[in-house]
Amino acid sequence: MRPSSRDEFSIAIICSLTLKVEVVEELLDEVYDRLGGYYRKQPGDDNAYINGRIGNHNVVVCCMPGMGKGNAASVASSLKISYPRISLALVVGICGGAPYPLSGEEIFLGDVIISDSVIQYDFGRQYSGGFEKKTGVKDSLGRPNKEIRAFLAALQTRRSRRDLQAKMLRHLQAIQRSNPEWHRPRSADDILFEASYQHKHFSPTSPICCCLGGKSRDVCKSALDTACIQLGCDKNRISRLRCNAENCIPSIHIGTVASADTVMKSGEHRDRLVKSDNVIGFEMEGAGVWDNTSCIIIKGVCDYADSHQNKAWQAYATATGAATAKAFLEYWVPTVREEANEFQVPLELSAFPAIEEFIGREDDLSRLWDYLQPTIPPTRKVAVLHGLGGIGKTQLAINFARKHKDDFTAVFWMSGKDRSALILSLSSCFPRILGHRRNDEAKNEEEAEQRASQVLQWLALPGNTKWLIIFDNVDQYAPFPDCNTCGYDICEFFPTADHGSIIITTRLQRLTEVGRSFSIKKLTQEDAIQLLLQSSGFSAQGAAQVEAKGPRLTAADIMAIVDQLDGLSLAIALAGAFMRETGTSFKEYLQLYKDQWSELQSQAKPTRHYQQGNILETWTTTYQGIQKQDPTAATLLLLLAYFDNRDIWYELIRGGLNCSHTPPWFKAAVSNKLAFKARIKVLVDCSLVEPRQQEGSFTIHPVVQDWCFHIAASEERTVQLYELALVSVGYTVPRKDDREYAQLQQRLLPHADYVIQREKYSWLEDKVAVWRALSRLGNLYTNQGRLQEAEEMYQRALAGYEKALGPDHAKSCKLADDLASRASLSATQEMPDSMPSNPTAGQPRAVSTLQPSLPESLQKRHVFSRIFCRR
């Protein structure tokens, strides 16, 4: 009897491109529906389906549009949208076989491979010396779940294998009767060459043939497309020839399958993987399905994964793989979970924000699982993921949910944007806990409130202990809300029972008081590079492609972009998407970022998986909230951007009080250390500023820094903030008798470099504090031996004094005297060894000799000041 809905399908068969529709339909004992005419599918699902029955199983069959892990992952992901109760997927098709596996049981063409584990042999790091495959437990796909492992272990017995093979032969014969295309080729065509013997021309064929020139492994395309018999492959290099007609029955092998985005066509590489990872087969789709649902790979062997591949065995291998899949399902009896009837709610990806690129963060995922995994006895666990907006908190939470969907009985995602959004999210879960589809929505606010309450009651039921809730983007928090606050108390929406697992993603560090703190930091440099390459259109081996396709400078440009964006996931993903969509090179993007930051960000389209907008928009709501709460703290944030972002401390900022006209907000912010810490606490709580506990200072992310420049310009605060920063740095330059003089100078130097390089300061006129700050920066550079920068500071300070007070004013003369004396002293440090640095007392010396590095005008000012200012 035909099932009434898609929820009654628990088995999926995912077919590779080469598995033809005729074989697919031969698998089915009964066809229920073709191409969704009856069952339809969910919006956003691009797959095409055939529904039917194999034995006692309702089965949905879908074919991939192309080869590779990406296509497989896309098909599997869409499959779960329309068929959320799928518990097992069979990946059926053809593969390359390892002729001599470590088990000692030889594999021949037409045999069948069944996976009991999968490895990705193209997942790793590309070094200049070669490719290194990642082999850690966290880096590999590993084994299937316990239920599948137990079943496969039972199939390993001699009797079970013999029975499975007999069923497979019966189904294979039925397929072959329907079409002679699926019959077995001649045994004489099952040829295995030596692993090192290349399939290539061994005599010149054309001027463009590369088989005989260059590297020994170079092979032209003509050779690759030519069969061994036409190419004339040396029969003396055959290592195994299958001629015995008694060995024509295909065998079934169970073991590790190697999966990758590339076709294995190297006998030597094949044998190395067989030896290192005990591999028995090679294919291209299994790894993509593995991360989305429990799966088993069942494929017929059509070649030996070497360069001597031909298509003669593909049809027969397709048939043996399909026949084995059907035989397998006749044995498969899935375990009925005890909680399934009452508390099991399938994961619905359509309820989650789309996630396109997720890279790295394996340590974060591991730490979350160690804390959140269901325990006996059950206790409620709340993980608070906090960090800068755009750092990747939501993506981490969603990836965790997808990775552990089978470990929780139900997974719900809630929008925590505000109280109303959260109530609607809870209300939308009500039909799901009843087993209904999602189109049953609340009709009004009152009904939404009622449904949300019922969902919380359901989550608190005894025995319903293994659920996971994600409260996403909880960026408002008011544990004691009143009429003057716009936030809400997230704890109001926690189920009352002491069980279950909760994830909160937020920018507010204060929320860590409701659960365990998980501070989400920037991506590592390696992961940031991988995300940039992937989002800009390169494959996982993009680093190698960069070296092959572009100039060597491109690698440096990639590193420069990664350093500039400093591990901020959103900024990296937006940069990659912009380059991919506009054809912009890495080098060109870097220049645009530096020269036209605001215009570049305004053109960046928000990604589907990030609901807060692009870089210009992502911190706007937070900033506006700070402005309402504490306008002084909001302006202080903008000021921090005008310093070097890596080490900012109170005494440095406080130097700005020496400005001629200190703005009131600044006086309020730095009047004392306690007032300063109160404002900084607001910024730290919103994750816009990060404390450095040991140094007693603070940092600001470089992309936030660029965003602050944009906001400051829009609020016409650039001149004021720059003047405050310049004066702050200048007046913090220590005297030689100050404590920790040398250490403070080294700490201050990056800020001095930043303020003089960030902007031109010629428009800061008639500001005595600015000239004094510049002169002090001259002292700093002089003491550090950077004489060119020192001279620039001295001249700018002197020009300011002379313009405002006149060249004959006592202050101008005194400054000219002091500055020229300091410059003269520093200049003697660069004299040749033959020139005495301490001339005999009273011995005259020409000005140009005493001061070889000074411009003539400054030398004359020095002399004039000594004559006239001392009268």
Automatic annotation (TrEMBL):
The keyword Transferase belongs to this UniProt entry's keyword annotation: yes
Residues covered by the NB-ARC domain: 362-533
Keyword rRNA processing: no
Record-listed E.C. numbers: 2.4.2.-
MF term (GO), any: glycosyltransferase activity
Stored Pfam families: DUF7779, NB-ARC, PNP_UDP_1, TPR_10
Residue ranges annotated for the DUF7779 domain, each copy included: 626-709
SMART domains according to UniProt: TPR (SM00028)
Top-level taxon: Eukaryota
Keywords: Glycosyltransferase, TPR repeat, Transferase
The Nucleoside phosphorylase domain, residue ranges: 11-133
TPR repeats (start-end): 771-804
GO biological process terms on file: nucleoside metabolic process
Name of the featured protein: Pfs, NB-ARC and TPR domain protein
